[in-house]
Design goal:
mainly alpha, Hypothetical protein af1432, 0% strand, globular, binds fe (ii) ion
Amino acid sequence: MSDDFEKILYHDVIESIIAAMEAKDYHTADHSRRVGDMVLELCPLLGLSIKDTEEIHLAAHVHDIGKIGVPDYILSKPGPLSEMEWSIMKMHPVTGADILSHSSALEYISKIVKHHHERWDGKGYPLGLAGEKIPYGSRIITVCDSIDAMLSNRAYRSALTSQECKEEIRKNIEIMYDRSIAECVLSNWEYIVEGRKHNADNK
Ligand SMILES: [Fe+2]
Ligand SMILES: [Fe+2]
């Protein structure tokens, strides 16, 4: 197989996975697209190569693919989740990584997806990894994922303002977020966050 053919095949596989997610849950697909857009702007500012940027960007597009395994009534519940529902929701990073791990070409992306809900202080999930033990791509997605969630309306709360969102990110440096990644986003906020088309009604 030529390199070009492999590249096209790789992208087509990702596109198919995204289409599967859109068929199941349009809100998650839309949220993932916005997170992917932010990641694409952010990675070069962090000094990452084109190849790494591309991989983390694709991982961002499919980071919530594991929600395919979460029942609809939980995904679309108009209010906070019960403890049991939350424990099912928290399985989505591992389910997503399992789906992607069937292709050896997607191994790196699978690992990033698995750890996108870890926290810098080790209190995240699924493994409770801390600090630099969390894959760098996952740490990047965590910041962008949080920003999109905070700027979105939920049934039980309105979207935060940009200023409130920035404050939350700043407060959680080295609690939830990698300092250098969070500070890079904060100092390039207009370019990374304000520039994208955000539909505040999406999850
Ligand atoms: Fe997620
Ligand atoms: Fe997400």
